[in-house]
């Protein structure tokens, strides 16, 4: 009887560990600034304030566009590209459009909170969100690969909110 109870408990714990939180589909892009990007009048309202990327020296640059971050950060338990990181995505989109032969791998990462399966799924959704943003800006799927490392490749060690926020990211890796 004791063995059966232990076996039932072990099966229940195993099944409980395998369950994961279902991710809700959410918008890919945070549109908190949508009010500032309406229209397209003659004065240039709605134009991006991002400085241009110099793509003339692109072949010598194996790391991607010069002067642009290769990381997009995310809020906790979210795969929505934040409005302040949209400029980074736009700069990489311009670089990829100017360099059609270049390919980029989008590496999705999470902090250590959550189960392994959940973090792998969340990392993949973050990478796919950046991919969709690049697609919307005109970059073809042939230039993009989206993968997830979940919590396996932390950028910062520790259990502080600062470390967690550095680990919730997608990195652009050019080939």
Automatic annotation (TrEMBL):
Compartments, as annotated in UniProt: Cell outer membrane
UniProt entry keywords in alphabetical sequence: Cell cycle, Cell division, Cell outer membrane, Lipoprotein, Membrane, Palmitate, Signal
Primary localization: membrane
Signal sequence extent: 1-19
InterPro entries: Bact_OuterMem_StrucFunc, OMP_bac, OmpA-like, OMPA-like_CS, OmpA-like_sf, Pal, Pal_lipo_C
Membrane topology reported for the UniProt record: Lipid-anchor
Ranges for domain OmpA-like: 61-175
Domain of life according to the entry: Bacteria
Biased composition annotated in UniProt, kind: Basic and acidic residues: 24-33
Disordered: region residues: 24-50
GO CC terms: cell outer membrane
GO BP annotations, alphabetical order: cell division
Stored PANTHER family: LIPOPROTEIN YIAD-RELATED (PTHR30329:SF21), STATOR ELEMENT OF FLAGELLAR MOTOR COMPLEX (PTHR30329)
Entry function: Part of the Tol-Pal system, which plays a role in outer membrane invagination during cell division and is important for maintaining outer membrane integrity.
NCBIfam families: Pal_lipo
Record-stated family: Belongs to the Pal lipoprotein family.
Binding partners and assembly: The Tol-Pal system is composed of five core proteins: the inner membrane proteins TolA, TolQ and TolR, the periplasmic protein TolB and the outer membrane protein Pal. They form a network linking the inner and outer membranes and the peptidoglycan layer.
Name of the protein in its database record: Peptidoglycan-associated lipoprotein
């Amino acid at each position: 009887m004791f063995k059966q109870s232990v076996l039932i408990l072990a099966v229940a714990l195993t099944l409980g560990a395998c369950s994961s939180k279902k991710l809700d589909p959410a918008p890919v892009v945070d549109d908190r600034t949508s009010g500032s990007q309406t229209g397209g009048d003659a004065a240039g309202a709605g134009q991006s304030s991002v400085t241009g990327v110099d793509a003339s020296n692109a072949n010598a640059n194996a790391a991607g566009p010069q002067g642009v971050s290769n990381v997009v950060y995310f809020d906790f338990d979210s795969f929505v590209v934040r409005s302040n990181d949209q400029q980074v995505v736009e700069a990489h989109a311009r670089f990829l459009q100017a360099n059609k032969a270049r390919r980029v791998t989008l590496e999705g990462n999470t902090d250590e909170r959550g189960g392994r399966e959940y973090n792998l799924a969340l990392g993949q959704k973050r990478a796919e969100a950046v991919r969709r943003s690049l697609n919307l800006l005109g970059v073809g799927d042939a230039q993009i690969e989206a993968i997830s490392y979940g919590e396996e490749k932390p950028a910062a060690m520790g259990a502080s909110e600062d470390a967690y926020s550095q680990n919730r990211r997608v990195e652009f890796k050019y080939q």
